[in-house]
Write a structure and sequence with these properties.
Alpha-Beta Plaits; 2 domains; six-stranded mixed sheet; four-stranded antiparallel sheet; FTCD
Length: 320
């Protein structure tokens, strides 16, 4: 009996040490229509028991998948420098698989993107994890991709030297301008030589892979609101009124994206500490009603921060 209690104490001590600093990474890859590729990348994300692939969100119209992974980091107690996180190796393996199996030149979808691996955002989840932890991990992966795989990488938010926002960098790169039928992004959208120097990697863009963005920022929630309208410019005008740039909610970022024959979605990123989904839903419905448009109930595309932590600790405890 004493040995059993000792073993349990060791397990708890290990969990306390290894999982006190918990980080989330949302990895966005430009593919959802090839199920074999999407599933193969998922399996790589599930190989290490110390990294939990919590969720996967696929959208056939966007032709895009988001993988949400959670793990711990270990940092130097005196310098605060990130020493190790098992998520780094797992993410790099997933990225290598994406580059090996996806060709951006033949990709087409209704969500903007600049590369096969379009975006990686790191978020501190537990109280012990800091934004600096997330930023350091982001910069390590950016170096792996840029210098190791020779793909241009742009850093943003806390990972950027001056904190430059992801939207500012995207505007400079022409990220938001569709190049196919006014509603889609097809093939390579960047010039062969970038107009601005990336933070890592070459200035020449590999056409099959494109470029990548990597950043660290506070946790955000993704909430999509479908409007039963195929007139994307009209929905874009509604979208602008929802965001802080045009008098709406200051912390909300949103895009109007074509989503089928009679639907355009307002895809929102919400700061849950400042605005809730119900507030966004109400405002969209009010503005859409002015245009005589019908709005469906919105939906979250991922778990909340609390749910992520709860499921992560439950899964790693079961594994140990």
């Amino acid at each position: 009996m004493e040995n059993k209690h000792t073993d349990q104490a060791k397990v708890k001590a290990k969990l306390s040490m290894m999982h006190s600093k918990v980080i989330c990474c949302k990895l966005y890859i430009s593919e959802s229509q090839n199920a074999m590729v999407v599933d193969a990348i998922s399996r790589i994300g599930q190989k290490d028991p110390e990294v939990v692939l919590l969720s996967k969100f696929e959208d056939e119209y966007y032709n895009r998948v988001r993988y949400t992974l959670v793990s711990y980091i270990i940092s130097n107690s005196s310098t605060g420098e990130v020493i190790f996180s098992p998520i780094r190796k797992v993410l790099l393996a997933m990225i290598e698989a994406a580059f090996s199996n996806i060709n951006l030149e033949v990709h087409c979808g209704t969500h903007p993107r600049i590369g096969v691996v379009d975006d990686m955002s790191f978020h501190p989840l537990s109280q012990a994890a800091t934004m600096e932890d997330a930023a350091q991990l982001a910069k390590l992966l950016a170096s792996d991709i840029g210098n190791g795989l020779q793909v241009p990488v742009f850093l943003y938010a806390a990972a950027h030297p001056t904190g430059k926002s992801v939207s500012a960098i995207r505007r400079e790169l022409g990220y938001y301008r569709p190049n196919h039928k006014g509603i889609k992004w097809a093939g390579q959208v960047l010039p062969d030589t970038l107009p601005m120097k990336p933070d890592e990697g070459p200035t020449q863009v590999p056409r099959e892979r494109g470029a990548t963005m990597v950043g660290a920022k506070p946790f955000v929630e993704s909430y999509n609101v479908p409007i039963l309208c195929k007139d994307v410019p009209t929905v874009r005008r509604i979208t602008r009124r929802v965001t802080g740039r045009s008098g709406g909610f200051p912390t909300v970022q949103a895009l109007a994206l074509f989503h089928g024959d009679n639907c355009t979605e307002i895809a929102c990123l919400l700061d849950p500490d400042h605005v809730g989904a119900e507030q966004v839903q109400w405002l969209v419905e009010q503005i859409a009603a002015e245009q005589g448009l019908e709005v469906d109930k919105g939906y979250f595309t991922d778990l909340s921060k609390d749910m992520m932590l709860e499921r992560y600790f439950k899964m790693v405890s079961a594994a140990d």
